[in-house]
UniProtKB/TrEMBL annotation:
GO MF assignments: polysaccharide transmembrane transporter activity
InterPro entries: Poly_export, Poly_export_N, Soluble_ligand-bd
Polysaccharide export protein N-terminal domain residues: 36-108
Regions annotated as coiled coil: none
Protein name: Sugar ABC transporter substrate-binding protein
A Pfam family it matches: SLBB
Species of the source: Mesorhizobium prunaredense
């Protein structure tokens, strides 16, 4: 019986270390993204207003390939652009034989959704609103389940075309397109 105790302790230590190896703190880029202007992506919907051109003023969705399809000008690249950059792109295309001096305004009508998985009341896809934190998003998803780890969550985020996952506190802000995973607590 005495010979199994050290073996048991060794196995316990190895299993605890293995559990710690999956810990992934949030990369520095997670928090830097919050200070930059919002960049459009697939699933966003924008309201384009071309003053004195009722036929062009409309709500357009960014398609899976990252483009808007606008009458007269066709496909306009939107993925990775800010709303102000998109205004310039659309105005430039309209100047090419359609309008002399187009006055274009772009505003975000609807952000791409966030996704919440794991130990919550109702996992799924939810609408993003500016100022949304992890805690607020979990409340929208029905709150924590009884087994949920309420200290921190894992977030998967697309940062400049690279998908990264990191562990953050529940008070951290979310960005459109984030996937939140609420882990199960150990004890």
């Amino acid at each position: 019986m005495k010979s199994t105790a050290p073996l048991f302790r060794a196995l316990l230590a190895v299993s605890l270390l293995a559990g710690c190896s999956s810990y992934r703190p949030a990369p520095a880029a997670f928090h830097k993204m919050l200070d930059h202007p919002y960049r459009l992506g697939a699933g966003d919907r924008v309201r384009v207003t071309v003053f004195e051109q009722e036929g062009l003023t409309n709500v357009y969705s960014v398609d899976q390939s990252g483009y808007l399809s606008i009458p007269l000008v066709g496909a306009v690249p939107a993925r990775g652009h800010t709303a102000q950059q998109l205004e310039g792109e659309i105005a430039d295309k309209l100047r090419q034989g359609y309008l002399r001096d187009p006055d274009v305004s772009v505003e975000i009508d609807r952000y791409r959704p966030i996704f919440i998985m794991g130990e919550v009341g109702a996992a799924g896809q939810y609408s993003y609103v500016p100022g949304l934190t992890v805690q607020k998003a979990i409340a929208i998803a029905g709150g924590f389940s009884p087994r949920a780890n309420q200290e921190s969550v894992d977030i998967t985020r697309d940062i400049n075309g690279k998908v990264m996952t990191g562990r953050v506190a529940t008070s951290d802000p979310l960005l459109p397109g984030d996937t939140v995973y609420v882990r199960e607590r150990l004890f």
